[in-house]
Amino acid sequence: MALGDGATPAPVPNLSISGAALAALLHRCAAAAGDCDGLLFGRASHLPAPPASLSDYDDLPPAPALSISVSGHCSLSHPSSLSDPLGRFQAPSSDPSSAVGFFSSRRRTALRPSMRELALANSLSKTIEGRTIAHPLLFILVSPSASPNFSTHSYDYRAFLLLGSRLVPASISVVNVGPGFRDQYHAFYPESPMPCLPIPQPSSPEPTGQRHTHTIGEQKAVDEIVDGFGIGRLQGVLGSAAGQAAEMDDMYAGMLRKLEKLAREVEQSNLRVLEQENRNLLLRYRYAGMQ
């Protein structure tokens, strides 16, 4: 339906994706054996109303009243898992009702949606049209490429919004930790693996035989965070003020040692995975007769 001369176009939602979610999405596209696709998850929220403008101009563009932020993705191992050959949506194992859109990865191709992706966008939009906040469907098209010796990987990506029955290009911002990332903390529910410890009361000692006994599960919960820090010692930190700073410093030093050990293990495993991926790619090229 064409807009009239006096009609005001609807404001485009504010699109954003966290840096960690974008890195995980690009890694998934690069690690795939061929083309792949998947669902995008995140949250859509209404932006607060802007303050009253003091400008005398009436033709200012309307501010976006909706924000769509991407925080993760879901993709199956085999390519083209979201649609059949006709572009009709096929529901994967995850629930698509909470999805904000989908992505598609095609190697060394122009960043233009295909007819199949347009059909998939319309089909997926009809499937999840009963979501809590109505918003246009988001589509991210990724085109990864690599150097001949696989030493350098590059990525091109572009975002589109399903407006009406067309996929319209839209700008998407990559948001890291900072003031711009604050809006995504509304869906964050902090959970601590620390066990719930009763604070001892020095003025009212517990009767003999009624002291709190710590279970093996509580001690394991503490050991997962910091090695060698007893649960009785942690309870003393919570209940006494004398020597609390030194004890906290010792606990955080143990936590940092634990994190450093985990970081080194992850770094070594990533190097082994990268070496195996490069060997697999070289074998695929060799079997395909490209070398």
Automatic annotation (TrEMBL):
* Name of protein: Uncharacterized protein
Q: Which UniProt keywords apply?
A: Coiled coil
Stretches of the chain forming a coiled coil according to its record: 245-284
Pfam families linked: MPN_2A_DUB_like
